[in-house]
């Protein structure tokens, strides 16, 4: 009779499940926190880009008179609106907007002037080059976000939080000399 009970497989799947359950929980907690980190990183990137656009929009319109069709009175009001609408926790977020120096860029502008077509219908013409310049200012937005992990197992292995940062730099066009002579 004892041999009959030794060959019984009742409860074997319960023991196997009990052995695998901790591994499944660890994998699930890491998966959830990594997914949250990826989502937060994308939100930080999006927010940095929107902050650059907000700065450019108000700066190019002029600080005193940005335009009559704006819904916000200042760049900071628009950035506060972006922070309110963001899924990120504003208490864990810091940002810095850096205005670089104003630079004149000099380049040779080329323009195609078509003088006619050949017997195959291909346009004939030439490029005209002129010295041009424009004025730009480089704007950099630095955004830093502290993501607090939610799963206890992830906190034990990786620590309590992860700092996500994004730096977004763009050139803001301020004007040009408009030197395009008539090629004829």
TrEMBL record:
Residue ranges crossing the lipid bilayer per the database entry: 12-32
Source organism (scientific name): Tindallia californiensis
Organism lineage string: Bacteria, Bacillati, Bacillota, Clostridia, Peptostreptococcales
UniProt xrefs under Pfam families: TadE
Protein name: TadE-like protein
Keywords associated with the record: Membrane, Transmembrane, Transmembrane helix
Presence of the UniProt keyword Transmembrane in the record: yes
Stretches assigned to the TadE-like domain: 11-48
């Amino acid at each position: 009779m004892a041999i009959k009970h030794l060959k019984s497989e009742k409860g074997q799947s319960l023991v196997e499940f009990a052995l695998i359950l901790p591994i499944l929980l660890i994998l699930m907690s890491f998966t959830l926190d990594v997914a949250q980190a990826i989502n937060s990183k994308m939100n930080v990137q999006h927010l940095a880009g929107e902050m650059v656009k907000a700065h450019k929009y108000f700066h190019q319109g002029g600080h005193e008179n940005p335009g009559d069709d704006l819904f916000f009175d200042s760049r900071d009001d628009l950035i506060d609106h972006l922070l309110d609408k963001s899924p990120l926790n504003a208490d864990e977020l810091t940002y810095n907007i850096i205005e670089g120096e104003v630079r004149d860029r000099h380049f040779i502008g080329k323009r195609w002037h078509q003088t006619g077509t050949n017997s195959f219908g291909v346009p004939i013409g030439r490029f005209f080059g002129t010295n041009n310049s424009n004025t730009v200012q480089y704007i950099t937005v630095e955004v830093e976000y502290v993501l607090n992990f939610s799963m206890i197992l992830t906190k034990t292995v990786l620590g309590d939080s992860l700092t996500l940062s994004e730096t977004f730099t763009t050139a803001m066009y301020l004007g040009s000399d408009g030197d395009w002579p008539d090629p004829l």
